[in-house]
Design a protein that fits this description.
8% strand; two-stranded antiparallel ribbon; 3-stranded mixed sheet; mainly alpha
Amino acid sequence: MDKLEQPLRFFLEKHGLQEQLKKRIYFQIWPDVVGEKITRYTQPVKIERDRLIVEVNDSTWLYHLTMLKSKIIDDFNANAGTTVIQDIKFINADFRAQRREEIKNRLREKSDHSTALNHQIKGIQLEKEEIEEIEEAVDAVPDFLRASLHKLYKNHYLRQAYHRKQGAKQCSRCRGLSLKLEDQLCLYCQKDLDAWTVVLDNFFKQTPWGTYDLLKREHPFLDEQLFKIYKNKMVLRQIRHLTAALAQKRSGDDGQEKKLKEIAQSYVLLVSEKEPTAIQKEHIYAALNRFPGLYELLYA
């Protein structure tokens, strides 16, 4: 079943559905937030980052709800027990219908592209191990789903094989193949990381020793892999800063030594994951051990 989960999870993540499935649980509190009367004229549609999209089927209510937006945001977060949204966008139901038509057109275009890709992968043969993995994955699936999931799996492997032939590389987060990677991430995963950058940046500025579990209390939907990827980028950045500061260090220059020590302290907090009051000499030594002579220079 673990094998079955992976391509399905990739599909949901890459199409922005995984996060929406998590966030949709908050739609249940909408009637408690706005009351029965307003609920009859409104329908929460989705949450984009920290903005709730609500469809309104009455133009008069659309105006009134816009005026009440700040109060509704406060009540929504209070009912949710955490800060889920920071903004609400109320949209006319007619506009929503127009958007549905646009989405249908885009889906048709994607379907045409998919048909062309399917034509290109017809000549590709799966490896014996891949066929066995597919059979094992669908073996425990109910009969009515088996054929559909078998097809999904086969297409997944065929597309991966085709992309490999085109020179695609593996994303370090979702493990999917992509012809274009940025910092070892595919475009979809990079977009996810960009969406969390402000939150992560503020978190590490305030608590450079902070862990994923600590941040998750405030942001339960944050992906642990994204946290680790961002933190790794922070560590590499600090290493570059330390290396550059060491290269510029001149004997007897107190100003440069002070700057070097500040960078080193930030680095120690980041990699040790310990609060400043809990830092001991052994933690500093272990963190700075990769920089020969730095510990002795600053702390001996």
